[in-house]
Amino acid sequence: MGNRIEREVTALRAWQVTTHGEPADVMRAVEVPVPEAGAGQVLVRVRGAALNFPDVLMCRGQYQVQPPLPYTPGVELCGEVVGSGERVVGTPVLPTGALAEYALMESDSVYPCPDSLDDAEAAGFLLAYQTGWFGLHRRAKLQPGETLLVHAAAGGVGSAAVQLGKAAGARVIAVVGGPVKAEAARALGADVVVDRREGNFVAAVKEATGGRGADVVYDPVGGDAYQGSTKCVAFEGRIVVVGFAGGTIPAPPLNHALVKNYSILGLHWGLYRAKDPEAVAACHRELTRMAADGTIKTLVGARLSFEEAPAGLTRLAAGENVGRLVVVP
After folding, report:
1. What is the per-residue pLDDT across 301-314, written as a single tens digit (0 to 9) for each?
2. pTM here?
3. Where is the Enoyl reductase (ER) domain (predicted)?
4. CA distances from residue 250 to 221, 228, 253, 259 in whole angstroms, order as listed
5. Do residues 137 and 216 lie in contact, with contact meaning Cβ atoms separated by under 8 Å?
6. Three-state SS for 209?
7. CATH, range 128-270
């Protein structure tokens, strides 16, 4: 089937960003030639494309990696390798991103798709769970019985961290925005859920821990979430800085970390693929096992059509999503 598709299809539908700005303003649906795989690359038919916050930042021209214009956005997919039909997950090679019918991938960045997950669940599996695993285990060294505070706990990255924290034997405090997200966090297994719109999460963490604070903080938000975390992190606690979805990059006074004796840990998962690729492969095997036994499962909040991709990125940018937003054929 793969060879037949490769022979017959010469053009494909794709979204392209032609100038920088908000996704709904700068994305255009076009037809482009099917990309040709170079040395060390494979061509895949996209079966699901997960939307990620870096996609928004790239559209705005604000991400640390910026492909040349025009480019097809989408940094994560589940696909079928043309020629073999193998179902895989991974990150495509920009500028041929995942928001298209076909995309290119580096052969050494292709991972077997977990059989226990459907295409949409698999599309949103790699980045969120790899980031959570490396953040909680490699960086923070989360221990059974410790308290884990997760910000944006009903989002794509946060929902993965909640599940991984519970699997590690931690007590999980989830911070969310709104009752729908609170319900989702409870369903994921969070022990304590705090709606930041209704209450102060700092006070809630202190109350839940008898004043001790959270041993590990998982923060993909930044801004006020980070500042509040410094007020409720435990003695010898660890704050894992994952991202800045809130739009503000904090400038923390380091004397505060010194006085309270806590650690600030940066996490850029993409570096591990270059610095320690075997660790990434081993992590994928372990996460695949956990998915197979039902310990973790991608929370898919919505399955979007190709035409809904720009609107999906707008929802993501506004923090209106629960779980992953995935574009499926």
Report:
1. 999 999 999 999 99
2. 0.93
3. 21-327
4. 10, 11, 9, 18
5. no
6. coil
7. 3.40.50.720
